[in-house]
């Protein structure tokens, strides 16, 4: 069962990102402040849910949250500052966009760049432990998927409707045949064996 809060006496936001391991498209992040007593039987790490469940939960979260926001960092920004810093940038942008400034931040993962003077806690696999992080994971994932569907219509050769920009065999083969688009991250490079690695050392 997900924990409702880490500090129930504070206005607490959960943060998570989607799209860090992709070869193409932006990285998205979400910040969510849930109300006391919020429960939903499906609420969980977005990766454990079906697309239909995520879409239903997105509507519920956006309707019932005290505050929520979604932001992104572009492929160009990822290449300029690296994917880790771009993920933090997207999280900060999401936090900036909240209608309420949180008093505490729960972050999925083991690293974060401090958001001003607001205290935070990094939680490994936090999207399966805290409700607010799970909610943020769902919003980040569904909003990013919607953006990749939009981009897929502009670049139909790369199977983004299916792979969402992740390095599937079909995506890698499409890059070999058609080259890179403006949405591809140049901070990844293809190796002779067809695999990919980060150019920038995080």
Structure description:
This protein is of the alpha/beta class. The chain has a single domain, classed as Nucleotidyltransferase, domain 5 (2-Layer Sandwich). The protein is 37% helix and 18% strand. The protein is built from six helices and seven strands; from the N terminus they run ββαβααββαααββ. The strands form two sheets. Strands 3-2-1-4-5 form a five-stranded mixed sheet, sandwiched between helices. A two-stranded antiparallel sheet has the order 6-7. A hairpin with a 5-residue loop joins strand 6 and strand 7. The mean pLDDT is 92.
Order of adjacent strands in the largest pleated sheet: 3-2-1-4-5
CATH class: Alpha Beta
Q: Using the coordinates shown, work out and report the CATH topology.
A: Nucleotidyltransferase, domain 5
**Count of distinct strands:** 7
Mean pLDDT: 92
Q: Report the biggest beta sheet as strand number plus sense, adding barrel if it closes.
A: 5 strands, mixed
Shape: globular
Q: How many structural domains are formed by the residues? A: 1
**Whole-number radius of gyration?**
17 Å
CATH superfamily placement: Ribonuclease H-like superfamily/Ribonuclease H
**DSSP strand content:** 15-25%
Return the structural class.
alpha/beta
């Amino acid at each position: 069962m997900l924990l409702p809060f880490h500090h129930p006496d504070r206005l607490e936001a959960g943060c998570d990102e989607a799209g860090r391991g992709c070869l193409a498209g932006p990285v998205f992040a979400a910040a969510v402040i849930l109300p006391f007593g919020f429960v939903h039987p499906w609420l969980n790490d977005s990766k454990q849910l079906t697309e239909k469940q995520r879409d239903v939960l997105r509507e519920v979260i956006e309707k019932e949250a005290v505050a929520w926001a979604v932001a992104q960092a572009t492929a160009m920004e990822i290449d300029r500052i690296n994917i880790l810093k771009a993920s933090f940038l997207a999280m900060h942008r999401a936090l900036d966009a909240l209608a309420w400034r949180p008093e505490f931040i729960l972050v999925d993962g083991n690293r974060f760049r401090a958001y001003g003077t607001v205290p935070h806690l990094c939680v490994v696999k936090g999207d399966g432990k805290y409700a607010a992080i799970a909610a943020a994971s769902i919003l980040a994932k569904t909003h990013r998927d919607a953006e990749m569907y939009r981009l897929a219509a502009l670049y139909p050769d790369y199977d983004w409707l299916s792979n969402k920009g992740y390095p599937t065999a079909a995506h890698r083969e499409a890059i070999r045949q058609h080259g890179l688009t403006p949405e591809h991250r140049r901070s990844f490079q293809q190796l002779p064996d067809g695999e990919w690695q980060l150019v920038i050392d995080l």
